[in-house]
Amino acid sequence: MYLLKRRKAEFSGDLTNTCIQWRKFKKVICGKYKPHAPFLLQLYLSSCKVSNNTLYVIAELCPNLQYLKIRWCCGLSNKVISKIAQICHLESLDVSRITRIKNIKRFGKYKYMKDITLCKIAYLSPNLQYLKLGAPIITDISLRAVAHSCINLRHLKLNYNENITDVSIIEIAQNCPYLEYLGLWRSNITDASLKQIAKLCSKLHTLRLIYCPKITDKGIYVIASACSNMQKYKLEDCEEITDISVKKIAQSNPNLKYLNFVGCHLVSDESICNIVQSCPKLEQLYLEGYNITDVSMSALANLYNLQKLDIEDCEKVSTNAIITLQNKNPTLNIISCLIKMKDKGMPIYVYNINETSKKSSERMKGNRYSPDCPFRMLINGSSNSGKTNMEINLMLGKKLKCMFNGKKGDRYIRNDDLVLVAKHSEPKWELVKNAYQIFANAPKPYREDVTFKTIVPDKIPDITKFSPERSTVVIFKDLCAEPKKVQVRIIPYFISGQHQNVSPIYVSQKYTQTPKIICENISHLCLFQGSGSRDDICRIVRQYTDDPKKASKIIDKHLRDRNFVVFDFTKAIDNPLAVRLGWDTPLKLDE
């Protein structure tokens, strides 16, 4: 009964077997409290396995249902939504990716909404105010029907739809004067649509345009000028946006709380300085581009309400500028930032969460700077020096980020299987586990035949158990203090692992704590802050320079600045990439 008093029901997962609340809900609406079922106003289903008939029965028993959200559900068809609209007077509809596959943990063929279904819904729901669809195959035909039937529409969000043009959006502007939110992803609208929105929809406060390549400064300029209530702009990958429109946004929209210019490479420091001066209420800022430098970081220190800053791929922003900004604003969440790179060779991302045969070798090359499988790597550094972050970057590369942006992307190390040997599992490795599951279950061209598993030190398998037909990376995480019997199991991975196509990575805090036989059989050494004394570094670099003391000072300074140094023993001593700052920048030890 209490479910109906709340007038809202929300469920996720397998409703038939595991959801106790769902079983209670069915008893309530079908049992002695059935007369109270019409009280239900909101129904949210996420990642559920539910049938068309079940949803239709709920609609019949709850005819006053106004808010319906269905995301990532299987067992449904889009036609049932139009049937619900016949019974219920919907005011809010959110439908994203429903499918008839049985296993909701797999990717499959989604049943996207068609024009005929959306036309019926529009005709039957004249009170519709909120519409969000993941419907890449609908066209201007059905959206024009929405414009003419749903004149009270306030929120319109369409994900990934190249069929939407000025034809329908202009009619939305002409017929829906109360529009407050417009969100389009990969549409073909032009500045003409935005000019009509600006002219006729003065209540607009949020504009979300992702990869709308025909949008330019002219369209954003008129929106900023005419819509004084604007609080959020998301102009991701709208590559024609420049400082001209951003300057107008700063001048005309002082109440801004959210700005996203990711992929707008023509936006420069000048724009950010204008935003800082004119928009003191800004809380979230997302940037990306070649024209953002330390100047912007210095200016942002004066934006006291800023809570979240994403400066991914801002290559000219230095590590020192980021650290300085963080010190001035300790509560600012700086995420996905680039760690001091000279070029785009191998970007390193910050994952900010709670804490063989010749043919096979070619297949496993993920990035020209990363090690080729099979390799043998040693990583040393103190806690919180960035070791784990770098390890995860090697395993994930750009792939996870690119997939969410509709691109393929690559992992830096393209192994088949990843094994983590550790006493304790860190939250960051849960991210890797989930990412590998996504890679393995994704549709083409994203799918990869990869696996991830975690084992404890006592269960380290014999090296001969691995198949040379698959490339395996085994990470031994902080095991230097484990008993001798564990070390004995690890050593064969560094002696003969290459014969089984196995690439071992040994991770410890101090270089001197690593078993000597492992140090003598590595192909790559990565040093982080706290990895050893200057004398330890001096012994390592002696083979690369005539002045090891000077070289050790250079390396020590970089480590103290929270960079990391890579020694690639597969390269000739005079090769520029034999010693590197990060993975992709040659480090000269004699300067």
TrEMBL record:
Ranges for domain F-box/LRR-repeat protein 15-like leucin rich repeat come to: 163-333
Q: Name one GO cellular component term.
A: SCF ubiquitin ligase complex
Which Pfam families does this entry report, sorted A to Z? DUF7885
InterPro entries xref list: FBXL15_LRR (IPR057207), Leu-rich_rpt_Cys-con_subtyp (IPR006553), LRR_dom_sf (IPR032675)
Q: Please indicate which superkingdom the organism of origin belongs to.
A: Eukaryota
One GO biological process term is:
SCF-dependent proteasomal ubiquitin-dependent protein catabolic process
Name this protein carries in UniProt = F-box/LRR-repeat protein 15-like leucin rich repeat domain-containing protein
